[in-house]
Specification:
Shape: globular
Strand content: under 5%
Number of helices: 5
Structural class: mainly alpha
Distance between the termini: 32 Å
Radius of gyration: 17 Å
Number of domains: 1
Order of helices and strands: HHHHH
Largest sheet: none
Number of strands: 0
């Protein structure tokens, strides 16, 4: 889960990383912005992680466990942003930027559901005895 969390901003469009005022086009995680931002490639980070710990989470269970971890990451993010949204609506938000998370709740949960459906389709194509 730590590895998914670290590389999440590279692929998780639902949860925009960085300052709330930063638009997706200037995100340091986008491939075209990585050189100027000094951000490494996500595979480079994961390769180094795998080298250090002796385990590559992307290869466990033919990659299925990695995809499930990404689903959990989206569900977790959607749940957290839902809590932020609820606190904002009730007037208990701790940040002046709390409103920026409103769209993230639905997009995170939608991304998780889409991934689950993709995993299910891939799994159902395998013959069962």
């Amino acid at each position: 889960m730590d590895a998914v969390y670290v590389v999440g901003p590279f692929w998780n469009e639902a949860m925009k990383a960085g300052h709330p005022g930063v638009t997706a086009s200037v995100s340091p995680y986008k491939p075209e912005n990585r050189i100027t931002s000094g951000m490494p490639d996500p595979d480079e980070l994961l390769d180094r992680y795998s080298q250090i710990v002796g385990f590559d989470p992307r290869k466990e269970d033919q990659g299925k466990s990695w995809e499930i971890a990404k689903v959990f990451h989206n569900l977790r993010g959607g749940t957290i942003t839902h809590g932020i949204q609820a606190r904002t609506i009730s007037g208990q938000a701790s940040s002046e930027f709390s409103h920026v998370y409103f769209e993230s709740t639905r997009s995170s949960l939608d991304a998780a559901l889409k991934s689950v459906r993709t995993l299910k389709e891939a799994d159902s194509s395998r013959p069962r005895l």
